[in-house]
Design a protein that fits this description.
This protein has helices at about 1-5, 10-30, 40-105, 115-145, 155-175, 195-210, 265-275, and strands at about 155, 180-185, 190, 215-225, 225-235, 280-285, 290-295. By secondary structure, it is of the alpha+beta class. The chain folds into three domains: about 1-75; about 80-145, Signal transduction histidine kinase, dimerisation/phosphotransfer (DHp) domain (Helix Hairpins); about 155-295, 2-Layer Sandwich (Heat Shock Protein 90). Strands 2-4-5-7-6 form a five-stranded mixed sheet. Strands 1-3 form a two-stranded antiparallel ribbon. Helix 3 runs antiparallel to helix 4 (about 115-145) and helix 5 (about 155-175) runs parallel beside helix 6 (about 195-210).
Length: about 300
């Protein structure tokens, strides 16, 4: 019986819960009246009818609202569990490497100065990776909790994009990816420098990571009506249309065209920061890859 009830929608259950007492009340009044139509019976039936007309639609709306809330909570819990699993994996990998290299140094397995320096450098790189992951988690928690405090002022996108592109060029060169920037205009927006730089940096690093050697990443800045527009084009090969809406979800790691890497937090953080600036961010397949577009209100 309980299995059958679990398969019935919550809206149906709440509607039945309202209708059954009303019907039972009407039946009781009819029985008590001796099945004789009297003014008292007519008044009771009228009251029950009004109650049913008001209560049934309300129960349907309430049931749907509770069902949506329950579904949202289940999806949020599933997403949380999945994110914890992914983050745990991403934490274990560098920690295992650090532990192995530390034990090798302690046991004297590695003793040559050159080898020790290599191990020390690798430990530092893994520590930096862990620090970045923790920083991303902290930033994401602030965004989702609505605790993001932005110091807003006039920001030139020329400075933001130029600094990010300059800092990302060595990484792109190491990966064999051409990184270029172009602008028809250099608009000024109202925002926070560090957060806007993080948005562009996340998009550019994501584009470089998913672009194969020999490909190119282009950053374009433009003005479209009341919006400043920043576009980042890559050569990832595109994303399937059924997966495209999930790109900005927490924990998204890619499709068959984009090799899963990282914790899947960068694009979620970018979306949260853009929305905190009252802007919009989107993605579409474009040319040999994808185009990420950020729209921010002009100053």
């Amino acid at each position: 019986m309980f299995d059958r009830l679990s398969r019935v929608s919550l809206t149906t259950v709440m509607t039945v819960m309202v209708i059954v007492p009303v019907v039972a009340t009407i039946a009781g009044v009819v029985v008590v009246s001796g099945f004789m139509f009297t003014p008292m019976l007519g008044a009771a039936l009228m009251v029950c009818t009004v109650v049913a007309v008001v209560a049934v639609p309300f129960s349907i709306m309430l049931g749907r609202a509770i069902a949506r809330r329950t579904m949202w909570e289940r999806e949020a819990e599933a997403a949380r569990r999945q994110l914890v699993a992914w983050i745990s994996h991403d934490l274990r990998t560098p920690l295992a490497g650090i532990r192995a290299m530390t034990e090798a140094l302690e046991d004297g397995v590695v003793s040559e100065p050159g080898e020790v320096a290599v191990y020390a450098k690798q430990i530092a790189l893994e520590a930096d990776h862990l620090a970045k992951l923790v920083d991303d988690l902290f930033q994401l928690s602030r965004i989702t909790a609505g605790a993001l405090n932005l110091s807003m002022h006039d920001v030139s996108l020329a400075d933001v994009v130029s600094d990010v592109v300059a800092a990302s060029r060595p990484v792109a060169a190491r990966e064999g990816v051409e990184l270029r920037a172009d602008a028809r205009e250099w608009p000024v927006v109202r925002g926070s420098d560090p957060e806007l730089m993080r948005v562009v940096r996340n998009l550019v690093s994501n584009a470089i990571r998913h672009t194969p050697e020999g490909g190119s990443v282009a950053v374009q800045v433009d003005v479209d009506g009341p919006d400043a527009v920043v576009r980042v084009d890559d050569a990832c090969g595109g994303i399937s249309e059924d997966v495209l809406p999930q790109v900005f979800d927490v924990g998204f790691r890619g499709s068959s065209a984009r090799n899963p890497s990282g914790a899947g937090l960068g694009l979620s953080i970018a979306r949260g920061l853009v929305e905190a600036h009252h802007g919009r961010i989107g993605v579409e397949n474009h040319g040999p890859g994808c185009r990420f577009e950020v729209r921010l209100p002009l100053r």
